[in-house]
C-alpha cells in the first residue's frame, strides 16, 4: 500500500514537472517567436534556392557568395556586441542629436538582442556551403575557418555572460565556468590531433589555432578576474577598517559629553535641560549622518558650532574661541566627524589643562573644491606627549583611506601654541550619489 502511494506521488510529481517544463518552453518560444521564425524562414528559403539551382557551377558561386555574406554578418554581430568598438566611433544609446547614428545604434542593439538567432542562421547556411565546396581547398578552408570563428564567438559570449553573473571569489563553485572552459579547450587540443592533416593549413591547423586563441582568452580572463578579486578584497578591508575608525569617534565624543552632563547635573544647573537637548541633536547627527560616506560641508560646520557651544556651557572659565568659516560652494561634501577630532583635541589638550588665558582659533575656507582647515590653541608646555593619542592617529588613518592622494596635514608645536593645517580636495555631493 505504501509503495503504491509513493509511486502515485512520484507520477504526480513527474507530471507536474513535465507541465512546468512545457509551460516554460511555450513561454520561451513565445518570447523569442521573431527569432525562431527568422531562423526557420531563412534556412527554408536558402535550402529551396539551392535546390532550384541546376548546375554545380552555379551552386558553387552561390555558396561562395553565401560564405562571404556569412563572414560579413558575423563581423556585424561581433561589432554589435562590443561596447568598446561602438564607443570608438561614438555610438551609444543616448546619442539623439545625430539621426543616422541613432538609427544605426538601434539596429546594432536589435542585432545584439537576436545574436543567438543570427548565429543559428549562419550555422545552418554554412552547412549548405560545406556541401558544395569541399573539393576546393581554399574555399573549403575558409568555410572551416568560418565554423571555428562562429564557434569562438559563441564560446566567448557564453563565458563572458556566465563569468559576469558570478561574483569574484576563490570558491570553486563560483569559478566553475573557468573549469568547464578549460576542459573544452583541452578537448579542442585533443581533437586537433585526430582530424585530417593532409592540408598544411587545413582542419588540424585551424583547430589548433582556435584552441590557442581560446586558451589565451581563458588565461587573460582568469588573470583579470583575479585582479578584480584582489581589488574587491582590498576595498572590503578598507571599508571595514574605515567603519572601525568611525566607531571609535562616536564613543569618544559621547563619553566626554556625558561627563559634561554629569558635572552640571551635580550642580543642579539650569543649563542642564538645554545641554540634554543639544546632546540629543548632536547624537542624532552622529548616529544617522556619521554612518554615511560623505555629508555636506555646511552640515558638518553646523555640527562643529553646536559642539563648540556645548563646550562653552561646560567650562566655567573664560575661553577665547573664534570660528571663522567661508564656503563658496554649498554642495561640497566631506567625510563626517573628520574635523571634530581636531576641535576635540584642542579642548582636551589645551583648554582642560590651562587655568587661564586659554584660546582656540579656528579658520575654515572652502573654494574651488579645496578645503583649508586651520586650528591653533595654547597648551601647558610642561605637559608631555601633547596632542598625541587615538584621536590624531584616527584622523591620520582616515585621511589615508578616504583622501589618499588629495590631502595634506601639517602639525606645528612651538612656544606653547599647537597648530594644525589640513588641506583636502573635496567633491560635490552629486559626485557621491
What's the structural blueprint in terms of helices and strands?
Layout: H1 2-31, H2 33-52, H3 56-81, H4 83-88, H5 99-113, H6 115-133, H7 137-165, H8 176-192, H9 203-266, H10 272-288, E1 295-296, H11 297-314, E2 319-327, E3 332-334, H12 340-351, E4 358-367, E5 370-378, H13 390-402, E6 407-414, E7 417-425, E8 427-428
Parallel strand pairs: 2-4
Antiparallel strand pairs: 1-3, 3-8, 4-5, 5-7, 6-7
Helix pairs in contact: 2-6, 3-5, 3-6, 3-7, 6-7, 7-9, 8-9, 9-10, 9-13, 10-11, 12-13
Order of helices and strands: HHHHHHHHHHEHEEHEEHEEE
The low-confidence parts are none
Query: Percent helix among the residues?
Result: 55-70%
Biggest sheet: strands, sense, closure? 5 strands, mixed
SS field, number of helical segments? 13
Tell me how many strands there are.
8
Shape: elongated
Strand order of the largest sheet: 2-4-5-7-6
| Average pLDDT | 79
Structural class computed from helices and strand pairing: alpha+beta
Can you tell me the number of structural domains?
Answer: 3
Strand content: 5-15%
Description:
The chain is α+β, with helices and mostly antiparallel strands and 433 residues long. It has 3 domains: 1-27; 28-223, no CATH class; 270-432, Histidine kinase-like ATPase, C-terminal domain (Heat Shock Protein 90), CATH 3.30.565. Helix content is 66%, strand content 12%. The protein is built from 13 helices and 8 strands. The protein has a 5-stranded mixed beta sheet with strand order 2-4-5-7-6, covered by helices on one side. α3 (56-81) packs parallel to α7 (137-165), α7 packs parallel to α9 and α12 packs antiparallel against α13 (390-402). The longest helix has 64 residues, at 203-266. The radius of gyration is 36 Å and the shape is elongated. 19% of the residues are buried.
Amino acid at each position: 500500500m505504501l509503495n503504491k502511494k509513493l509511486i502515485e506521488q512520484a507520477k504526480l510529481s513527474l507530471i507536474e514537472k513535465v507541465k512546468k517544463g512545457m509551460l516554460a518552453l511555450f513561454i520561451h518560444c513565445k518570447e523569442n517567436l521573431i527569432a525562431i521564425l527568422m531562423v526557420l524562414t531563412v534556412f527554408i528559403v536558402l535550402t529551396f534556392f539551392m535546390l532550384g539551382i541546376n548546375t554545380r557551377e552555379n551552386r558553387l558561386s552561390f555558396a561562395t557568395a553565401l560564405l562571404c555574406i556569412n563572414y560579413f554578418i558575423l563581423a556585424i554581430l561581433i561589432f554589435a556586441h562590443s561596447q568598446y568598438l561602438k564607443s570608438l566611433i561614438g555610438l551609444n544609446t543616448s546619442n539623439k542629436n545625430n539621426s543616422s547614428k541613432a538609427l544605426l545604434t538601434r539596429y546594432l542593439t536589435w542585432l545584439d538582442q537576436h545574436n543567438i538567432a543570427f548565429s543559428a542562421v549562419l550555422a545552418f547556411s554554412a552547412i549548405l556551403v560545406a556541401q558544395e565546396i569541399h573539393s576546393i581547398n581554399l574555399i573549403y578552408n575558409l568555410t572551416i575557418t568560418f565554423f571555428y570563428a562562429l564557434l569562438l564567438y559563441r564560446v566567448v559570449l557564453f563565458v563572458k555572460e556566465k563569468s559576469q553573473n558570478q561574483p569574484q571569489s576563490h570558491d570553486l563553485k563560483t569559478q566553475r565556468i573557468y573549469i568547464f572552459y578549460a576542459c573544452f579547450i583541452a578537448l579542442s587540443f585533443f581533437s586537433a590531433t585526430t582530424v585530417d592533416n593532409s592540408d598544411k593549413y587545413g582542419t588540424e591547423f585551424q583547430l589548433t589555432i582556435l584552441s590557442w586563441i581560446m586558451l589565451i582568452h581563458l588565461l587573460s580572463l582568469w588573470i583579470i578576474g583575479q585582479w578584480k578579486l584582489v581589488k574587491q578584497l582590498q576595498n572590503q578591508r578598507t571599508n571595514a577598517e574605515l567603519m572601525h575608525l568611525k566607531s571609535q569617534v562616536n564613543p569618544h565624543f559621547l563619553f566626554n559629553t556625558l561627563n559634561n552632563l554629569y558635572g552640571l547635573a551635580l550642580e543642579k544647573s539650569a543649563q542642564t535641560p538645554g545641554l540634554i537637548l543639544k546632546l540629543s541633536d548632536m547624537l542624532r547627527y552622529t548616529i544617522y549622518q556619521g554612518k554615511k560616506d560623505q555629508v555636506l560641508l555646511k552640515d558638518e560646520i553646523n555640527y562643529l558650532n553646536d559642539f563648540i557651544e556645548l563646550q562653552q556651557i561646560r567650562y566655567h572659565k573664560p575661553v577665547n574661541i573664534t570660528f571663522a568659516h567661508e564656503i563658496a560652494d554649498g554642495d561640497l561634501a566631506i567625510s563626517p566627524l573628520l574635523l571634530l577630532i581636531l576641535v576635540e583635541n584642542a579642548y582636551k589638550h589645551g583648554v582642560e589643562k590651562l587655568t587661564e588665558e586659554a584660546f582656540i582659533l579656528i579658520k575654515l575656507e572652502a573654494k574651488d573644491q579645496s578645503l583649508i582647515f586651520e586650528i591653533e590653541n595654547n597648551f601647558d608646555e610642561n605637559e608631555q606627549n601633547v596632542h598625541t593619542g587615538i584621536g590624531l592617529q584616527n584622523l591620520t588613518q582616515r585621511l589615508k583611506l578616504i583622501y589618499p592622494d588629495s590631502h595634506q596635514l601639517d602639525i606645528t608645536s612651538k612656544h606653547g601654541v599647537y597648530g594644525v593645517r589640513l588641506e583636502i580636495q573635496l567633491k560635490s555631493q552629486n559626485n557621491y550619489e
